Amino acid sequence: MKILVVEDEAALLEVIRRSLELEHYVVETAETSLSALRKVNAYNYDCILLDLMLPDGSGLQLLEHLKKLNRQESVIIVSAKDSIEDKVAGLELGADDYLPKPFHMAELHARIRSVIRRRQQAGSVQIEVGNLRMMPDKHQVEVGGVPLELGRKEYDILYYFINRRGYLIKKEVLAEAVWGDDIDQADNYDFIYAQLKNLRRKLAAAKATVEIKTVYGFGYKLCEKE
């Protein structure tokens, strides 16, 4: 799961980044409104943490831009500006939540999990497809009630697919979502093939009723077995 943190205070930005990475998120950062706009124009995110007071403008401009693009990222405004007007403006422009500074990291993590559940999982704390169950809050997977041990990237790949089941996913999009925005500088995608191979092998060995199919020339798709 990939998060963009838009924050101009360098020390706080680093604390947030490290904290989220410990929670197994892929974290990208932007310190200005312009750099944030460039990132959202080029990449997709599961959640955006957005400061309102940026050195080159207001974070509300980024919200307006996302709304015009009809983008579906969850957005949490994280700002020292705690006025009712700012809250109302942000929520009306499509923000999912508003967290005033200062805050505890535990609360930030809980807010992120909550907005992602609402957006991707219809509020559920677990996802079930066939005999496979994912519990994102615990980073756990079960097949037929039996725990399935996955590496971090294997888990991230499965989580990405299970939230987009039935949809065709290009390898470039998968790589960007699971490994981060700089992945477009990679020479090849051998690392993706290796992780997918391991994940498929573990799903098959556990007798999962879901599989990740290759659609040759296009990408991959997670489907229930017939």
What can you tell me about this protein's structure?
By secondary structure, this protein is an alpha/beta fold. It has two domains: 2-120, Response regulator (Rossmann fold), CATH 3.40.50.2300; 127-224, Arc Repressor Mutant, subunit A, CATH 1.10.10.10. The chain is 42% helix and 23% strand. It contains eight helices and 13 strands. The strands form four sheets. It has a five-stranded parallel sheet with strand order 2-1-3-6-7, with helices on both faces. A four-stranded antiparallel sheet has the order 8-9-10-11, with helices on one face. A hairpin with a 2-residue loop joins β8 and β9. The chain is globular and about 55 Å long. It starts with a strand and ends with a strand. The mean pLDDT is 88.
User: Which CATH top level class of the largest domain fits?
Assistant: Alpha Beta
Number of strands: 13
Query: What oligomeric state is this?
Result: single chain
Order of secondary-structure elements: EHEHEEEHEHEHEEEEHHHEE
- Helix tally equals 8
Radius of gyration: 18 Å
Poorly predicted runs are none
Identify the CATH architecture of the largest domain. 3-Layer(aba) Sandwich
- N→C terminal distance: 28 Å
Q: What would the CATH topology of the largest domain be?
A: Rossmann fold
Helix residue percentage: 40-55%
Biggest sheet statistics: 5 strands, parallel
- How many domains is the backbone divided into? 2
Spatial strand order of the main sheet: 2-1-3-6-7
Beta content comes to 15-25%
Name the CATH homologous superfamily of the largest domain: Response regulator
Shape: globular
Mean pLDDT: 88
